[in-house]
What we know:
The protein has helices at about 65-80, 85-100, 110-125, 130-140, 180-200, 220-230, 265-280, 300-305, 320-330, 345-360, 375-385, 395-410, and strands at about 5-15, 20-25, 30-35, 145-155, 165-170, 240-245, 255, 255-260, 265, 285, 310-315, 335-340, 360-365, 390. By secondary structure, it is an alpha/beta fold. The radius of gyration is 21 Å and the shape is globular. The termini are far apart. It binds 2-phosphoglycolic acid (PGA) and zinc ion. The site of 2-phosphoglycolic acid has 11 residues, from loops.
Amino acid sequence: MPVIERLAAREILDSRGRPTVEAACALKGGAQATASVPSGASTGAAEAMELRDGDPRRYGGLGCRTAAGNVTGPIQEAVRGREFATQAEFDAAIAALDGTQNKSRLGANAILAASLAFARAAAMTAGQPLWRYFADLAGGQPAALPRLTINLFSGGKHAGQQVAIQDVLIVPAAARTIDEALAVAYDVYYAAAKLILERYGMRLLRADEGGMAPPCRTPEEMMETALDAIRAAGYEPGVEVALALDVAASHFRCPGGYRLGGETLTSGQMIDRIRRWIDAYPLVSVEDGLAEDDWESWPDLCAAGGSRVLVVGDDLLCTNPARIGRAMRERSCNALLLKVNQIGTLTEALAAYRLARAAGWDVTISVRSGETEDHWAADLAVGWSGDQFKNGSITQSERLAKYNRLLAIEREVNLAVTLWPNRHGLASRVR
Length: 431
Ligand code: PGA
Ligand code: ZN
């Protein structure tokens, strides 16, 4: 049984050069592990709170020394020398120590770093790879590997708002292995780079998640460009490579609706627009098509698109069981975007995951736009049988750490990538 010998943390930097927290956990018996937490930019209002130092003279107030100090100080004091039979017991102890709804006292960044470092050390003690430890937490062994959704183009908060929508992603939907999916993504990514150089005279400049940010005037132009890149790479759109969107509509909400390009759309018009996109493009998944506070319109969006695509809630749900419960009752979505740091511990994220599964929803396991070289999210995507894994693009080492980890897991297990569509009786959009 794991007994905590030492728990400490320090401030490190994420892929945007902003501070975040890395924790180290040592258990009696010798297992020692570290884990670091990511950070979002396009955050939901209901997310657990990252604790930042607020000192304007350091990193514009974004320092994480206080959060790291909370791990080495009060969290360690509360758990050192104690035995924790399960992840749930450990997480409950540190969440109780915080005592707030949104982890604002000790910081969700401090708490999650401790939760993950404990998980990794406990897995080592048990002689398990991390993905298997996660699978045991969720109570089942994976039957398939997640399908990749790979960021091709970004707008919105990830790329200076040249287009309101946040991400156009490619989905190598016909690939049966991670290895094959990444090779397809490479072809499409570099075909797109060539194309945007020709069309926009734009060199390969990258957005936060490693996607490109061409100066498209509209979301339609961005999706058309993605389809052209797929064709230029020698693949058939909708057959070999599909598309996914993260609309991230909370971030272009305005009084009276949504500010999309030069237009202001009501919620109903926004739903019509998304329906048109689903008709026109080989989309398999549409995330945050409406804003996090537009609860009354989400059921209409789900009714309009839910039989053809995954209607995914990110900012809407914030990996929060209470919000997921509401979305289930109101039939707001048919898929959860799961980001562990939106809620703050593995155990609470697992509760969110279980609820989504009980409702028959798909689950996309997602990283954040600010990431580190840690690759626990790849293990989580496998261990919790994510239908999709959303990890940004195929450039930048913080993304590749996860893809390379998936390649390693793929060599270890003999599993194929999950088929599309695999649930709900969704009409196949990929022939
Ligand atoms: P993030 O957003 O910048 O908050 O990580 C990613 C997303 O909206 O999915
Ligand atoms: Zn999102």
